[in-house]
Write a structure and sequence with these properties.
single chain; alpha+beta; Immunoglobulin-like; ten-stranded antiparallel β-sheet
Amino acid sequence: MKKIITIISVLLISVMFLYPLKVYAADSGVTLDGYFDDWIDKPSQKLYYWQGAVHTVKWYSDDKDLYLYIKMATVGGQQLNNYTITYSDNNGIQGNLTIQVDRPSKGRISIYNYSMDYRPFSTDGYVVRGSNSDGKTSDQGEFRIPLTIFQKDSKDQMITLNLGFPNLGNQGVAFQVGSTYPYMGVSIGILIVASGFFIYRRKRKIE
């Protein structure tokens, strides 16, 4: 009986230590610095607008923020201006965000949700202006949006997020964001308990 209690105690302690384990994406993160070199391997979506304009949106998420990158088309509307982002998720939460872009050749990007607050949610994004006349270069921007805007009561859970960019095209993007650690912790805990029980049963048979 003492052996059983000891085994169960060790397993429970192991689960307690493993439960807060956080799981991050395997690829490298994003640094908002206006150089855009860390967006090369990130997933992307083309947004088709009128006059042959094709814009590009890329995204990356950790357990706190959603990062977005926008590359404007080289023809038919190259400037990144104060545009709208619409959002909705699988929990019924929806709303609009506003991108506010500085005018300098290398300026900052701020994100607002005027239905919630008149203060910006983030101000550390970057915009770099292209020549917008040579057919080769155009504006690029990167910025972050705190996941708390989308998660509300579903904090520490994965949510399916749908984003729309009505100023850039009719296409949208859909992906999952949030933290996976509650599910990963429980899964590891169950695996440890099952393994311990199997070892104990096998040991009893040998004895």
